[in-house]
UniProtKB/TrEMBL annotation, chain A:
Record bears the keyword Lyase: no
PROSITE patterns, A to Z: CYTB_NTER
Phylogenetic lineage: Bacteria, Bacillati, Actinomycetota, Actinomycetes, Propionibacteriales
Protein's UniProt name: Cytochrome bc1 complex cytochrome b subunit
Cofactor: heme
Transmembrane parts of this sequence: 54-81, 127-145, 157-177, 223-247, 278-300, 352-371, 391-408, 423-443
Entries under InterPro entries matching the protein: Cyt_b/b6_N, Cytb/b6-like_sf, Di-haem_cyt_TM
Domain Cytochrome b/b6 N-terminal region profile: 28-254
EC number annotated for this UniProt entry: 7.1.1.8
Entry keyword set: Membrane, Transmembrane, Transmembrane helix
From TrEMBL, chain B:
Assigned keywords, A-Z: Cell membrane, Electron transport, Heme, Iron, Membrane, Metal-binding, Repeat, Respiratory chain, Translocase, Transmembrane, Transmembrane helix, Transport
Reactions performed catalytically: a quinol + 2 Fe(III)-[cytochrome c](out) = a quinone + 2 Fe(II)-[cytochrome c](out) + 2 H(+)(out)
Subunit architecture: The cytochrome bc1 complex is composed of a cytochrome b (QcrB), the Rieske iron-sulfur protein (QcrA) and a diheme cytochrome c (QcrC) subunit.
Enzyme Commission number(s): 7.1.1.8
Chief place of localization: membrane
Name listed for the protein in its UniProt record: Cytochrome bc1 complex cytochrome c subunit
Matches recorded under InterPro entries: bc1_cytC-su (IPR009152), Cyt_c-like_dom (IPR009056), Cyt_c-like_dom_sf (IPR036909), Cytochrome_c_Oxidase_Subunit (IPR050597)
The keyword Ligase belongs to this UniProt entry's keyword annotation: no
Length: 577, 299
């Protein structure tokens, strides 16, 4: 693997113009290098090449917002007191002075009002958390839709899935720490979810809360998870994730000179590192701006948690939105057997359904590989349109996600748009099943139409917008051939192979069912795709074009009207007859 | 002066309404009646600012009531059952008291424009005086909660409170607010949804006496918080709290732009639109920017 890198890199280092300052700088570097030998030992790393595309930076947003989380989080630990012990608030927020509350809530108020810059830190931390998970999601979507999860990157795909899960857990733990009314309401729901687990639910809840909800233990426990356990796991997995990216090398878009064997782009040092480093400051800047200008989680308005209180507008952070939505639209199903209650209405939407959604996404690469039987490595990305079923599947999943998120805010939809909550719920119950199917169908057809358009361009050239009139009076549009580079880009993909169903008796009964299923899936995934033109088709098309040119050849000058195609100076021109 | 302007505004607003003509005539009649009453010998100690006795007010209120309210609430305020026999065109007003009338009429809910799921807030259709007559009439049907006075609902109007006592009252009000009201009206009083398209309206900008009257009379699906449940001081403190958290001087927007106080859903939208949206644009910009370096290298 690694020897490919050396081959694809230039042999002579880029010449650096030696200005005075740079010369001094390189002297320092040389001094350090002579003693530490870092540059020499890391040469391969430094010369590592990264291809350049904006979608390859989505993962970086996640990475840098995680760094912002770590930095702001460490500051918050200096003042936060993870205890549920009762104190009387005596800080500077007037409307709560003298109120009995937990130390956790009081210290969160102190950070907001009595620690200099504390509120900014709190808000930056929270915004960064929201952005972190959102960035993971868009990054994952880009990986999915370009087929970057294919061999050899399946493991990294799975690591990513675990990261999303850990990110959500981490976010939820953080949301629960300040012990305000929304935190507690969120924990109450979590408690309900856990209790709905068949058989062991109640036991698990007592274990987690060290007794009856809310107890005294949950905040200190969540604190350990939030500042130590989960971030440690995330950090380790991010490290593994990045190492694998370096080891596999980054994928790239098809183009002249780019193959499955090389990587074309900029070296790690200095171009990529400079860009990535710069991007860190941008992410930091955006979170700082949001933290400074946009209010998030104004805990002083919620008041301390008290199990007897609730408030309208209690919602979790956005990434829990789909669980919230599922809970809100689930019909009230319960079973009572032998004096026990089985709360399907909570268990299914709260625990089972989100896991199924994530699980299906995680398993897709393996499903696809099984169907195609493709064992080759892939370093060239698919254009989304060239995998219509995959792209449409993602679009459908996105629509489910969006609908459930909206269902989680049904009360706000009702008040802000004067709608009826019950009708929203009923609509959503149907829509979560119907809309994704429609979206899938439309997205797939859309991709196929785009594929067809590509084929047209390859065969007949692009549309110039010039209308020709033949001697017989028929109109036609002039097409011109596309550039070699574009033709390469459009044709750099393999033909899809639809697996045939086994003929009866050909396969012994045991494998037959699986083979049939595989053939069905293969047809579903690939049968409707438009394949790139064959050499023969290209030949014919060119022949046809030449023939047209011959027909036009009789004209002494270019067909009339051509002078107005925008490529010529038309001063004094008139239509000739 | 402010008072005058306000009633003038109401009058002109109301003149745009369809029953305006009728009401102007009625008003003329009333004034004539009032003048007559003022000069007649029956004026007694009961005389108030407009010089009407209580029974004259009730009579004036009855006339207004017959004109604007009786179609739904019946000739004698006994309520009208709808044609389907199940629901009310308007409920009985016997015993709802003057407070309910002040609240319903001054917030513009009554007269209801059309029977619907919930009478919306709108500009008031009656002057203060007319409202008082209506209230007097409805209160005469059977005893009910009377309209509160300024010291009932306004902490600032209570004399002899130290700054600390005032603050303690607000803190107490906050606790009561979070216990009794946020479930429907949201933690900031931004309002919330109720089943079947009904809603608990936002509390920002609602006049103090209307908040008091709302608690006292429990309009629609709002529970009645009688004086046994929340004492008049409790109510006063709740109102003081609502006003203090919505007052930009007492409670500045500490965290920045608050997105209407709608909570985490609005924050999530911001994270996507501003946060991820902005950062993706930056990513795009950076990637495009490298292409330029590339050209320079070529040159
Ligand atoms: C802690 C959160 C994460 C961080 C910090 C992170 C960071 C990164 C970075 C910086 C890259 C290289 C640049 C890029 O392609 O964008 C990358 C690549 C990758 N990530 Fe992530 N990522 C995270 C979560 C995820 C998730 C949730 C998934 C999918 C389930 C995922 C799957 C992948 C894959 C398959 C690659 C290789 C892509 C390629 O080479 O084209 N990552 N990640």
């Amino acid at each position: 693997m690694t020897d490919n890198v050396a081959k694809s890199n230039g042999t002579t280092p880029a010449a650096v113009p030696a200005s005075g300052l740079a010369a001094k700088g390189s002297a320092v570097v040389k001094w350090a290098d002579d003693r530490l030998g870092l540059a020499t030992s890391q040469k391969k790393m430094i010369r590592k090449v990264f291809p350049d595309h904006w979608t390859f930076m989505l993962g970086e947003i996640a990475l840098w917002s995680f760094v912002v989380l770590l930095v702001t989080g460490v500051f918050l630990t200096l003042w936060f007191v993870p205890s549920m012990g009762e104190v009387q608030y005596q800080g500077s927020y007037d409307q709560l002075r003298g109120v009995e509350m937990s130390q956790a809530y009081a210290s969160a108020l102190d950070i907001s009002f009595d620690v200099r810059g504390g509120l900014l830190l709190r808000q930056m931390h929270h915004w960064a958390a929201m952005i972190f998970i959102a960035a993971m999601l868009v990054h994952m979507m880009r990986v999915f839709v370009t087929g970057a999860f294919r061999k050899p990157r399946e493991v990294n795909w799975l690591i990513g899935g675990v990261l999303i899960l850990l990110g959500v857990v981490e976010g939820f733990a953080g949301y629960s720490l300040p012990d305000d009314l929304l935190s507690g309401t969120g924990l109450r729901i979590a408690d309900g979810l856990i209790k709905s687990t068949p058989v062991v639910g109640t036991w698990m809840s007592f274990f987690m809360f060290d007794g009856e909800f809310p107890g005294e233990a949950i905040i200190p426990r969540l604190y350990v998870a939030h500042v130590l356990l989960v971030p440690g796991l995330i950090l380790a997995l991010v490290a593994a994730h990045m190492l694998l990216v370096v080891y596999h090398k980054h994928t790239q878009w098809a183009g002249p000179g780019r193959t499955e064997e090389n990587v074309v782009g900029y070296p790690m040092m200095p171009v990529y590192a400079a860009k990535a480093g710069g991007f860190f400051f941008i992410v930091f800047g955006v979170t700082a701006l949001m933290g400074g200008l946009l209010s998030i989680n104004p805990i002083w308005k919620y008041g301390p948690y008290d199990p007897s209180k609730v408030t309208a507008g209690s919602q979790p952070d956005w990434y829990m939105g789909i669980a919230e939505g599922l809970l809100r639209i689930m019909p009230h199903w319960e079973t009572h057997i032998f004096g026990t209650t089985w709360s399907w209405n909570v268990f299914l939407p709260g625990e089972v359904a989100p896991m199924i959604l994530l699980g299906v996404m995680m398993m897709w690469p393996f499903l696809e590989a099984w169907v195609t039987g493709d064992k080759a490595e892939h370093h060239i990305l698919d254009r989304p349109r060239n995998a219509p079923t995959r792209t449409a599947f993602l679009a459908a999943m996105m629509s489910v996600y969006g609908l459930l998120w909206a269902a989680g805010g049904n009360d706000l939809l009702a008040t802000q748009f004067s709608l009826n909550m019950e009708w929203i719920t009923r609509f959503m119950r149907v829509a979560v099943f119907v809309v994704p199917v429609l979206v899938f169908f439309i997205a797939k057809r859309w991709c196929i139409a785009l594929q067809r358009h590509d084929s047209e361009k390859i065969l007949h050239g692009y549309e110039t917008g010039i209308i020709m009139r033949s001697p017989e009076g028929a109109y036609s549009e002039r097409h011109l051939p596309i550039s070699g580079e574009e033709a390469y880009r459009l044709t750099a993909r393999a033909r899809d192979n639809v697996v045939a169903a086994p003929v009866n008796g050909e396969v012994e009964a045991k494998g037959a069912r699986a083979a049939k299923l595989r053939a069905k899936l293969s047809t579903w995934m690939f049968a409707d795709n438009v394949q790139k033109p064959t050499a023969q088709e290209l030949e014919e098309a060119h022949h046809h074009a030449e023939h047209e040119h011959e027909l036009e050849a009789g004209l002494a000058h270019a067909a009339d009207g051509h002078q107005f195609d925008g490529h010529h100076d038309v001063a004094g021109e008139e239509l000739r007859h | 002066m402010r008072l005058l302007n306000r009633s003038a505004g109401r009058l002109s607003r109301h003149r745009r309404g369809p029953v305006a003509g009728l009401l102007v005539i009625l008003l003329g009649l009333l004034m004539a009646g009032g003048l007559f009453a003022a000069f007649s010998s029956s004026a007694t100690a009961e005389n108030s600012a407009d010089g009407l006795t209580q029974s004259q007010k009730i009579e004036a209120g009855r006339k207004l009531f017959l004109l604007s309210c009786a179609t739904c609430h019946g000739q004698n305020g006994e309520g009208v059952v709808a044609e389907n026999g199940e629901s009310n065109l308007g409920p009985s007003l016997v015993g709802v008291g003057a407070a309910a009338v002040h609240f319903q009429v001054e917030t513009g809910r009554m007269p209801m424009a059309a029977t619907g799921k919930q009478a919306p807030r709108k500009p008031a259709a009656f002057t203060e005086q007319e409202t008082e007559y209506l209230a007097a009439y409805v209160a005469s049907l059977a005893p009910g909660p009377a309209a509160p006075t300024k010291t009932d609902y306004d902490l600032d109007a209570v004399k002899g409170l130290s700054a600390d006592e005032q603050r303690d009252a607000i803190v107490r009000g906050g606790k009561l607010f979070l216990t009794n009201c946020t479930a429907c009206h949201n933690f900031e009083g931004s309002g919330g949804a109720m089943p079947w398209g009904r809603y608990a309206p936002p509390l920002k900008g609602v006049a103090k006496q209307h908040i008091y009257e709302a608690m006292l009379t429990g309009p629609q699906q709002m529970p009645v918080f009688s004086n046994n449940v929340l004492t008049p001081e409790d109510k006063r403190d709740i109102i003081a709290y609502i006003y203090s958290v919505n007052d930009k001087k007492q409670t500045p927007a500490y965290g920045g732009f608050g997105m209407k106080g709608l909570g985490p859903v609005a924050e999530g939208l911001m994270a996507w639109l501003v946060g991820i949206g902005g950062l993706v644009l930056f990513a795009y910009w950076i990637a495009a920017h490298t292409a330029r370096t590339h050209k320079k290298e070529d040159a």
